[in-house]
TrEMBL record:
One of its GO terms (cellular component) is ribonucleoprotein complex. The lineage of its organism: Bacteria, Pseudomonadati, Pseudomonadota, Alphaproteobacteria, Rhodospirillales. GO terms for biological process: translation. HAMAP family: Ribosomal_uL4_B (MF_01328_B). It comes from Insolitispirillum peregrinum. Part of the 50S ribosomal subunit. This is Large ribosomal subunit protein uL4. Pfam families: Ribosomal_L4. InterPro entries: Ribosomal_uL4 (IPR002136), Ribosomal_uL4-like (IPR013005), Ribosomal_uL4_dom_sf (IPR023574). Residues 49-77 are annotated as: Disordered.
Amino acid sequence: MKCDVITLDNSAAGSIELADDVFGLEVRVDLLQRVVRWQLAKRQAGTHKTKGISEISGTTKKPFKQKGTGRARQGSMRSAQFRGGATIFGPVVRSHAHDLPKKVRALGLKTALSAKLAEQKLIILDSAVTEGKTKELVSKLEALGWGSTLVIDGSELNEGFKLAARNIPNFDVLPSQGANVYDILRRDTLVLTKAAVANLEERLK
């Protein structure tokens, strides 16, 4: 399918042919959910921890004799029912990461790209190059009407564009190898350069 190409100055720069097997797939919400959940699970620190009975400092002596007191039998003051005692079945340090097949990950990325195109929120940019300052880039973005935006460039980012964009809120810039489902979906508009389209099609075909 054909898609128009624009420049940062909002002028036409021809058109580009997008591969149907990368940008024209059926949108599957279940697949996107699986990939996003896999991404976020890998990011969890998993450092939550509570103390078990063996980790509580305190005496190991039986608090009082087993029989004859009229009270419930107790074996340790470090048990969960006492103040300062252990936590039963509490969280432990662990990894939340789980496996997801490579084919499912690739299909999820293609589905995310197809979803943006179907919503008409995919824009093809001639190149993401600027020598100006953040103020100049912000004025260009306002003219283009880009608010919450992710820009994906080729294998190397333009240094001037990266520096100008890094302090703009809700505006992210990634190289093509960093393209992922979560970042694509969390921004309203997806902007791909022609170099990014070529790299992504080569990677996902």
